[in-house]
Amino acid sequence: MSTRLPGAKYSRIFDRGRSIKGRLLVAWYYSAADADRLAGVVVSKKSFHEAVDRSRAKRLMREAFRLLVKEGSAPVGVEWIFIGRAALRGRKCGEVKSEMLRLMGKVYDG
Asked: Contact 41/82 with Cβ under 8 angstroms?
C-alpha cells in the first residue's frame, strides 16, 4: 500500500489544514473522517540548490513516514504534507522519523 498523497489533495491540506514548525521540517496536516494515512513532501530550490540534495531530502521524508505507518505510530484519519527545511541536509532517516513523530505528538498534545 502506498503512503503517497495524490497531487489533487495538496490544495485541500494547504487551504483547510494547519501547520506546525519543527527544526528539520514543517508539517501541514488535515484531519477528516475520509482522510487516509498519506503524506506528501515538498522541498524548495531555495533551501536545496542541487537536484541531488532535493531528491535525497524527499526520499528521506517519504521513507520516514512509511516506517511510521508500518509501526502504527502515524495517526489514522490525518493527511500530511512535510516541507523540508535546510537543516534536513545531511540527516539520517532515524532523525527525520523522530522529528516527524515529535510533530505528530504536538498535534494531539495541544
From this structure: yes
Domain membership of residue 101 as a residue range: 7-109
Which three cell numbers, joined as nine digits, stand for 52? 541531488
Q: What is the pTM of this model?
A: 0.93
In a domain, 44, yes or no: yes
- CATH number of the domain that 57 lies in? 3.30.230.10
Tally of CB atoms within 10 A around 87: 14
Is residue 2 included in any domain, yes or no?
Answer: no
Contact yes or no for 93/13 (Cβ under 8 A): no
In the chain (110 residues long), the average pLDDT of successive 10-residue segments reads 88 94 96 89 96 96 96 92 96 96 83
* Alpha carbon distance 86, 36 (integer Å): 28
Q: What SS3 class is residue 23? A: coil
